[in-house]
Amino acid sequence: MATCSRTFTRKFSGTTSLGSWIHKWPRFKRWQELQKANEDHVVEKTRMKNFIRLPTGLYITPERPEDLAPKKATADMTRRETGALPMDLLTWHTQMRYVDHSLDNIRRYNRYTNFQHMQYDQRMIPERLLFLGADLAAAHFLVHRGAAVKFLGDDSWYKRDKRKQYKLPGRKVENLLIEAIDASGTSLMFEGLENLEGLLKLRLLRLANCEYVDDWFLGRVGAMFPELEMLDLSGCDRISAKGLMGLKSMKKLKYLRLEGLDVKDVGKAALLLEETIPRLQILGVDYENCLERVEAEIRLLEDERVVQDARGNAFVEDDNGRLFYVMGDVDERAVVDDGDNPIMTSTVRREIPDMSDEQFDKINALSGGKLKHLLVGSPSGYEWTSTTETILQSEAEWKSRAGIDVNPKMLPGRTYEIEKQNKLEEEKKRFFENFPSHEQLGDEESEQRKISHGS
């Protein structure tokens, strides 16, 4: 297996040892495409070899392969047919001076090639399904990649040991059905779900802290396992509220765990799922935090400086009429160097909004820190809370050594305490003011009884 993996890496990465340092990003090709291209090459080679057959049984191969192909006009010929250099090579050579040799790009390149390998490695192998059956083939696929499985009627969990070895039957066993899967922390991908087809008795599926579980993954899970009763998605950061709604077809789902899932509108999606699926209980959702977020968004939109575009993104307008993004569907992150340290100069840096410090801190707090974040960073997908303060601290120290004045709005440690206006508590208070309590109702009933007995 290790030999096959090394062969695949060399064959499918499209680079040599020199390319791994130059970082020529290869175009991603699936193994089916490469196999088809190889078959076409063999057919063309055989056709050239058998071009002319002599009465003695010998074959004459033309000296030039282009003699077999019909002649084309020069304008219709490709660069390969005219003998010119490939356009990919010219483009790569032109971009050599722009190639990023930083350690961050090396890590990014290695993650990219590893991602390609995992997509190929998690393909569905028909022979494995034929000889082992759906459940046992899925067990081999999962346990080999670090997951654990439990079979129906067996209390033991089957997983790899410290030497990455495991014991599972090597041929089909009747009535051996998977009941539970624990794939927490594994690299299970969308392409690997094809190996889990036909698991009719699966009741529990744990996908906690799986890096590649996203909305597309959940959509397929909802369609593949209608009998699933327990699902754990804790720590899956790529899932959005829209992706959670892909589980609405799982009518037998009883428990859904969403701990550590800090995404927008997760509370609303959880309530809609509980309303759609009977007997569903969702664990790990901080509804109070979700309500506070909604309140902050409402108060932010009520501010006179905040405007919205047609897509629902919110911007704050300063005294000079400039707009600064504060809320919407745009991802953000801080700009960092190879060592994950903040970069002082950013090509997307905006000027400080022209408004009072109090208004700046208030809008920044209501937007969850995005106003200040985008003044020191660029779009991407990281969280901001601690990163922004690190950047501001480093920049303030650098400017103080250089003798440059720092705008008070960009000093680290500036916080604004938002006045909590819990609408739920207000509604409760208003309800009890309009309606008497149980003690008051009891006093009124006793007085009515006394009046009735006296009469």
From TrEMBL:
Q: What keywords appear on the UniProt entry?
A: Coiled coil
Output the Gene3D superfamilies linked to this UniProt entry: Ribonuclease Inhibitor (3.80.10.10)
UniProt cross-references to InterPro entries, sorted A to Z: FBXL15_LRR, LRR_dom_sf
Checking Pfam families in the record gives:
DUF7885
Residue ranges annotated as coiled coil are: 284-311
Please list where the region (Disordered) is annotated.
Answer: 430-455
Which family does the record claim for this protein? Belongs to the ATP synthase subunit s family.
Question: What protein does this entry describe?
Answer: ATP synthase subunit s-like protein
